[in-house]
Amino acid sequence: MTALLQRAAALLTLPVLLISLWWVVTDASTNFFWPPLREIVGVFPETWLEGRITTDVVPSLLRLLGGYAVAVVVGVGLGILAGSSSGFRSITEPPLEFLRAIPPPVLVPVLVLIAGTTDLTKVLVIAVGCVWPILLNTIEGVRSIDPVYSDTAAAYRLRLVTRLRTVVLRGASPQIAAGCRQALSIGLILMVISEMFAATNGLGFTTIQFQRAFAMPQMWSGILLLGVIGVILSLVFRLVESRALAWYHGLRAAERKG
User: What range defines the domain where residue 99 resides?
Assistant: First the structure.
């Protein structure tokens, strides 16, 4: 219990200090573009908790989760193929490198022409940006698996599905998780960017509307909400990762003790 409290204190100390500093520095601010933090916090409930939860926040999160899920499925699937087969990797590497060099926001007008101004466009923008760290980390994770494991699986004539589950996915899972963690922050950024183009709701759309209307406290409250959502998503991801990779973290801890 004491260790848990110490860890919580270590995690919260810097955020609390930064928020306190922000509060004190801006408390007497008369700058229109930099309102006091107390004013931003004051407008937060009426801005986001009275109706916009269902009309803006939830749709944004659903788009983020949809694009992120597509990126995970495509990235892990292609990564396993490219990591397992040098022939497939050599064929797909040039076009993948070309596509990776294109910034996802640039594709927004193209995707609007293809899919229209629907949620599908925003999901695709998020997926296109999130897929690369997952794909590249999966490839490296699969390639770094000890060949002895693959040879043992082949010697025991394990079925393909069993081999993928027990050897490939398990062996590459730490690096896949690292790629998924990177993709989560990218997805949040692209969620906001995608909603700035041809959108009628969402966190990005509403925040930019506040900026255009010179509603500065409301605009800053939207930025604050995005930061809070990012922290919550990161904590949820770390919780899921710690459970899913408990065996790996236990192995690393045992190696350090040894």
Answer: 58-199
Segment 26-50 shows an average pLDDT of: 90
What is the Cα–Cα distance from 119 to 74, expressed in whole angstroms? 19
Do residues 134 and 176 touch, judged by C-beta distance below 8 A? yes
Interatomic CA distance for residues 78 and 143, integer angstroms: 13
Start-to-end CA distance of the chain, whole Å, equals 26
HSE, side-chain direction, 13 A CA sphere, residue 104: 24
Alpha carbon separation from 163 to 83, 107, 134, 153 (Å, rounded): 14, 37, 21, 7
DSSP secondary structure letters along 103-120: -GGGGHHHHHHHH-SSHH
pLDDT digits (tens, 9 = 90+) for 204-240: 999 999 999 999 999 999 999 999 999 999 999 999 9
The answer as to whether 194 is a domain residue is yes
Q: What is the DSSP letter of 135?
A: H
CA dist 61 to 67, 187, 253, Å? 10, 10, 35
User: The domain that contains 191 carries what CATH number?
Assistant: 1.10.3720.10
Q: Is residue 185 part of a domain?
A: yes
